[in-house]
Amino acid sequence: MKQRKRRIWFCSLAAVILVGVSAVGVLHASALTTEKLSGMEETSRISRVEKLSTQQLIGLLNGDKSVRANDLSMANEGLYTVAAQLLERKDSISNTELLGQITDPSNQIQTRSILMDLYAIKNENTPKAELKELLVSQGGQLPAELKVKAITDAVFTEEDIPLLKSYVEEEDEIVAFHGLKKLSTVNLSEAAAVSDGILSTYPVQPSQKISAAQKVKSKFYVNNPNATGKKEFIALCVQIAEENPQDTILRDSSTFALSALRDYSAVEAIVNSPVLDRISKVAAVNENFMTLWDVLKESPSEQDIAFVITCMEIHPIKDLADDLERALETVKDRAVQSRGHAVVEKMRGPEGIEANDKWVS
Hints:
361 residues, mainly alpha, 23 helices, 0% strand
């Protein structure tokens, strides 16, 4: 989970803050709830929270029903207003105060999570050494949700490899997932070696840990194209997907890992799989437009041309039409010729799709 993505909810709260607030007397926090705030006019609601102390605002977060249920999908306008006010004050709240509230077990977990996001936003452009210190000193007491956020935001170095490996061994598979991903940003070779251990025993590993290992190994082969074992890795990803057709995490992670390789054999494995669905195959063809184009430019065999035709029948990309048509001039099999000319017409027609610029490189 990208840091920017997981902050979308919090950052959007800034839109709640408006100018032109009317003057209203201070209401004691003990008489106020986020539910009551939600029933007020917006200007009155904002005026009320502006007059509360930071501690009172945190108290309102703790008392909110959606926070207590750890389900912000039920969040009300009062909660948004309180969180937005905290966001407004981020530069006047010290890191020490924020970290103290984050580690305070008397606060609701979701309150602490919101404050962790606030800390990350406040310190977005500065190293977050305090988070690593927090993990070392309080890691055993931190709920998994907070540990994941700290791992995601903290800055680690080669010296921290043992610490990051310890997260991969944790029982909570989400913590393990993010620990391994973070390790790959510090030392990809070390992360790949840890991933090998996970994948070699995948039948007894949790899905999230397998998913992280697949992502790391795919990244490793992209960065080390001549490394041995890629053929076996492709076969293993296919095996994992086909042995676990009902596990959406493993099915998707296997597909993503294979597709990210930008490897012709990996695309073949996805498209020819009897288990992977059409959506997965469309995504793989879309992402590997350049891989297929390279095949067409390099004197492809009839088998290769037939496979590209299959891919275009799944996802007709306009940009490949001319190259596929030229390649068809070398094909002797009339059935392949017929399919090829039909799909070229489809690629050039209204069903044809422009290549995604994201993957043209």
